[in-house]
Each structure stands twice: as structure tokens, then as C-alpha cells.
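So, can you check these C-alpha cells?
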Amino acid sequence: MSKVLIIEDHNDIRENIAEILTLAGYTVYQANNGKLGIDSAAANLPDIILCDIMMPELDGYGVLYMLNKNPKTSTIPFIFITAKSERPDLRKAMEMGADDYLTKPFDDMELLQAIESRLNKKNSEMDFYSHSLGRLESLVGDKEGLSELKKMIEEHIHRPFKKNQIIHYEGDRAIGLYLVISGKIKTVKMSEDGRELMTGMYHANDFLGVNTILSDETYNDTATAIEDSEVCFFPKEQLEELLKLYPDVGEKFIKILSNEIRSKDTHLLQLAYQSVRKRIAESLLRLFRQEEAAKGDSINITRDDLAAMSGTASETVSRTLTEFRNEGLIEKKGSKLKILDYTKISKMKN
């Protein structure tokens, strides 16, 4: 029997929703303000949360923010229920990680369908997550400490991120480490003239934030999902304890960090000394290799992201990609690119 938490300060509305859900067979918990709602979520770990936005003491946005900070509650599907129906409100809710948005007044069927839809999606994600763990065998190996790391992954401390949703901001204090289960994550840093420089692209089985955790500093870039993604979260304290107990885990992360440093050094040299055509070609090749490793045969990237990755302007990327297409090097359909002549792009000199 699924558990639902209702956080709503209006008694009549809250009790009416509770009655509907009880009749539908759900176990219902209630809270009449945001602070009590956070406590109830941590204590009862409901399968889904319904929350009003406009409440005293702590509003719905604050509730969602606090729940997202707690690994135990960050993965619970979250639906806003509110009379605020302006587009900026909806956008803010989605950017913060809400799963759905019901505008008052709503009828019984709208409510039940929204809950059922979110619960079904969560179950599908959990099935996918369980299957994806099989791909991590080669990552963690058979050593004692790495086996403990695999157990941590299997604890399902994970959450979905929608396309364009921020995972962490530059300057944020690192509270843990992320492992990408599916999707793509980019990290970018703002230059002094306001342009974005892409510092990394992360795919399935990549760890995000290793350098920040090991150096015990704040993030020096911003991480964003460039498509719907699934990540596994490791709290910093738990990871530090694992590193102290098992040297083989530390060796694994040192290798990951060394590879990241080597890759970024190469990228910086390319930005400093190569022509624009060569930089864009190298970026395409790097993306192609990553997609190939993920069993993909094409590259899906926006013009702006490719510009940030190659350290040039978006207009220059458009012009260069048109040249590549006219030369028969690539095939382009919207944001999807396919390399037609891998050898020529690899040997490009100017």
C-alpha cells in the first residue's frame, strides 16, 4: 500500500484530499505547515509528497529545497498543489526538481491520475536502476573496499534530474559525490567576459565531483543535466569513512582524478594552440568516443554547448559545422550530429 504525505495549511483542502486518497487505498500522512511536513517526510518516508506552495513559516519551495538536501527524502516524488498558476511559478517549481504541478481547484481524477502516474514512473526508474547496476561490475571490481562501494550504490540513494536542471552551482559546498547512472551531465565555468566554458561531460558510470570531494573545497563549476538523467548520490561523510577503511577505494578515485586532470590538461592545450576548426573537430571526436562507449552512433549536442566545449562563439560553431557538412565530414539534423569521415576529422590540421 503506497504512502502519501499531504503538506497543506488549509484544513478543509488537506482533509478533503486525505479523504479521497484514503478511499483510493492509500496510507495518508498530514502536516499543516512546511516544518512539520519535513519532519513527517523524514520519519515516515512516504512514496510521494503533495505540497502547497503558499504556507506560513516555510513555503513549498523551502520544503522541496530541504527535502532535496536529505539523501533519504531527495528521491521521493514531489507534486506541488497550489493556486499559483503563472508560468514563472511553474518554471521555478520544475527547475527546483518538482515532479508535477496541480493547480487548484482540481478534481478527484486529476489528483489520482497525477499520483498514479508519478508512482508508476518511479517504479520504472527503480527497475531501470536495478538493471543498470549490472554495468557497474567492471567499475568496482571484486576487492573488499570496492565491494562495499557497490553495496552503497545498491542502497538506492539516487534521484532523477530533468533536462536543464542544476545539480550543483559553482561555489556550493560539496555535500557528497555523484555517480551518473544514465543520461548526460555537463560542468561549465563562467569566464570573465560572461561566456561559458565547458569543463567536463559525464555519461553513465562516470563519477561527478571527485576532485572537489578529495580536495575538500567548494565546487569550481556548475553541473547541469543536458538530458533527463539519473544519478546515485554518496553523502560526503559516508564516502570519507569508506576511504579511511579501504585503501583500494582511494586508489580507484585517485586513478579517476588523474584521468580527469590529464584530460583537462589536453583540453587546455587545444584551446590555447589549435585553430577553431581543429578545436571543434576535437570536441566532436571526444563526444563521439563517449557516445560510442555508451553504445551510441551519433552525437546529440546543442550549438551553445559545443561552443562552450570548444571555447568559441556559437555563430562560429554554426559556420564551421556547415563547412564540415558541405565537405562531407558530418551529417547534421537539428542538434544531432553524425561523423561521416572519422579519419579526415582526426587528421584535420587547420
Notes: Residues 160 and 230 are 4 Å apart (CA to CA). The longest strand covers residues 176-182. Confidence is low (pLDDT under 50) at residues 128-142. The two ends are 64 Å apart (CA to CA).
